[in-house]
Amino acid sequence: AEEVLKIHDLKCCSRPDKVGFRMLSYNLKDIGFAPYGEEWRAMRKLSVVELFSPKKLQSLKYIREEENDLLVKKLTESALSQSPVNLKKTLFTLVASIVCRLAFGIDIHKCEFVDEHNVADLVHKFELLVDSIAFSDFFPKVGWLIDRISGQNKTLNNVFSELDTFFQNILDDHLKPGRRVSESPDIVDVMVDVMKKQEKDGDSFKLTTDHFKGIISDIFLA
């Protein structure tokens, strides 16, 4: 334990580099799967200072309260009408609604490009993909051929394409000319603002579109 946690800590603190993780994290441009280094430290600092600071989370507290109130209202209506409730689906919808509003500023009940069924489908496909085994992870030189024959590559590319389309729609929605930003901007608004400031200030670390999508991938699929 001492060898791993103290002496060789820096060598052991990164996650294994897997084909699926690399693709879904936009070539390790996120926080969850990126190897330890200067880039990871810069992204972690961004998340702690700008995205998930106590002040920021407190400013978005009203979203959690509104969604919880809506859930209680729906459960009350179901109880009065003696209608059965699928708790697994109901709680998933609650979490998805909070995450999408807090992080992306979208209401999955009213959004044009995604709804709760699409969100559930994307999360389910991602979970299956993470649990699957890619031969390329064990045999890098020849495994890609087996993955292509078995359909693993096609499955991975299809899931990534769906996720990337969703994330791109979120980014495009926030970059619309004349879009009004609320007094409590969502996490994507904050990242877009950071990207614009970095272009002006010339910071050594540049938050790219891949970093942006990698971070919201972590938030969405956590």
From TrEMBL:
Q: What is this protein called?
A: Cytochrome P450 71B7
Q: What lineage is on file? A: Eukaryota, Viridiplantae, Streptophyta, Embryophyta, Tracheophyta
Family, per entry: Belongs to the cytochrome P450 family.
Keyword Glycoprotein appears in the UniProt entry: no
Keyword terms:
Heme, Iron, Metal-binding, Monooxygenase, Oxidoreductase
Q: Which cofactor does it need?
A: heme
Q: Name one GO molecular function term.
A: monooxygenase activity
| Positions in coiled-coil regions | none
List the source organism: Noccaea caerulescens (Alpine penny-cress)
- Which Pfam families does the entry mention? p450
